[in-house]
């Protein structure tokens, strides 16, 4: 059994023996994804099976942002829906086992398109087909009645934007290290021009290609549900539109869609509107909100790095990160102007 930060191999193996008896010891662990988000580990058994373990980041974390029981509940609720997710296999809330709660799910094979280089390896026709499936799955997610799948208590359904603005304004003020005029102006404009929320849906909160396992022009699994809540589905659409950059739109862009071959942003918006009957005439508001929210989140990360709260050996260009917060705020302002 290997020694890996965030993994007590002996305790987890004993837990597997009781809760996932199909797994054959000894178990081997590898880190698949780390960072500021929940940690994802591959668990390999002696029979050649692979499972996935999710746990919170190491060190002090916000309970609400890294609630394993909540994430496990969301994925379990969607497993029989038209939204592709891995099958969950078990949840451990006992912190004596691994110092933090964790859950186990099936391993889904396939690439995650983190950047343009990875996306460019797919045939152009497959990229186009995948893009259409991305927006179709989002429409299907938003069509699910949260109460029908046991997620009606996931959060408040109403006043999503008002709650989000309050939350991220508070975050911005708590982590502000320098003035960014665009942040304050965008905050004012978002309050002033807030659209009325039409209905409530399951909102993923981080819906983009980098959080999906893909294959054959389809999504095989939507991952990273830690920001999921109930609220205004248009927030997901605005977020996806921002992440869906066109080739040449942003200098030096490394987002997956920058390599070309994917459907245009406008085509996705139109397809979503047709599938859901929703009015996308105010999509720029939601795109601006998304940029502004990410700027507030980014400022919090920047401040933690600045004061050394993220540890010593972090490869971070602080000046570039600082500038990225301003760039997002200014992008938000441009969409509202």
How would you describe what is shown here?
This protein has helices at 9-19, 68-78, 95-98, 116-120, 124-143, 160-175, 181-192, 234-243, 265-276, 283-306, 318-336; strands at 28-33, 39-44, 50-55, 88-92, 102-106, 201-203, 212-215, 218-222, 229-231. The chain has 337 residues and is an alpha+beta fold. It folds into two domains: 9-106, Phosphorylase Kinase, domain 1; 116-336, Alpha-Beta Complex (Aminoglycoside 3'-phosphotransferase, Chain: A, domain 2), CATH 3.90.1200.10. The longest helix is centred in the last third of the chain and has 24 residues, at 283-306. It is globular and about 60 Å long. It starts with 8 loop residues before the first helix and ends with a helix.
Question: Which sequence of SSEs, written as H and E, runs from N to C?
Answer: HEEEHEHEHHHHEEEEHHHH
Output the CATH class name of the largest domain.
Alpha Beta
- Structural class based on helices, strands and sheet pairing: alpha+beta
**Could you describe the largest sheet, including whether it forms a barrel?**
5 strands, antiparallel
* Cross-sheet strand order for the largest sheet: 1-2-3-5-4
What would the average pLDDT be, to the nearest integer? Answer: 92
User: What is the count of helical runs?
Assistant: 11
């Amino acid at each position: 059994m290997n020694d890996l930060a965030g993994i007590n191999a002996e305790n987890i193996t004993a837990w597997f023996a009781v809760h996932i008896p199909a797994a054959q010891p000894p178990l081997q662990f590898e880190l698949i994804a780390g960072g500021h988000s929940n940690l994802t580990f591959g668990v390999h058994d002696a029979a050649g099976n692979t499972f996935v373990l999710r746990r919170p980041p190491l060190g002090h974390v916000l309970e609400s942002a890294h609630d394993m029981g909540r994430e496990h509940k969301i994925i379990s609720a969607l497993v029989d829906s038209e939204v592709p997710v891995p099958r969950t296999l078990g949840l451990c809330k006992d912190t004596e086992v691994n110092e933090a709660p964790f859950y186990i799910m099936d391993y889904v094979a396939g690439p995650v398109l983190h950047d343009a280089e990875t996306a460019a390896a797919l045939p152009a026709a497959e990229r186009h087909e995948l893009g259409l499936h991305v927006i179709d799955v989002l429409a299907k997610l938003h069509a699910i009645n949260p109460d029908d799948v046991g997620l009606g208590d996931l959060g408040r359904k109403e006043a999503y934007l008002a709650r989000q603005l309050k939350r991220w304004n508070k975050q911005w003020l708590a982590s502000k290290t320098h003035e960014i005029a665009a942040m304050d102006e965008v905050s004012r404009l978002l309050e002033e021009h807030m659209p009325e929320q039409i209905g409530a849906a399951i909102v993923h909160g981080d819906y983009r290609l980098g959080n999906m396992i893909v294959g054959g022009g389809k999504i095989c699994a939507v991952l990273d549900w830690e920001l999921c809540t109930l609220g205004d589905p248009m927030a997901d659409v605005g977020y996806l539109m921002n992440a869906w950059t066109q080739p040449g739109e942003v200098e030096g862009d490394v987002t997956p869609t920058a390599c070309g071959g994917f459907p245009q942003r406008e085509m996705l918006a139109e397809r979503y509107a047709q599938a859901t009957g929703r009015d996308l005439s105010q999509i720029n508001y939601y795109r601006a909100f998304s940029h502004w929210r990410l700027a507030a989140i980014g400022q919090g990360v920047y401040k933690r790095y600045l004061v050394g709260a993220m540890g010593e050996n972090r490869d971070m260009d602080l000046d570039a990160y600082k500038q990225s917060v301003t760039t997002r705020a200014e992008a938000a302002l441009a969409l509202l102007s």
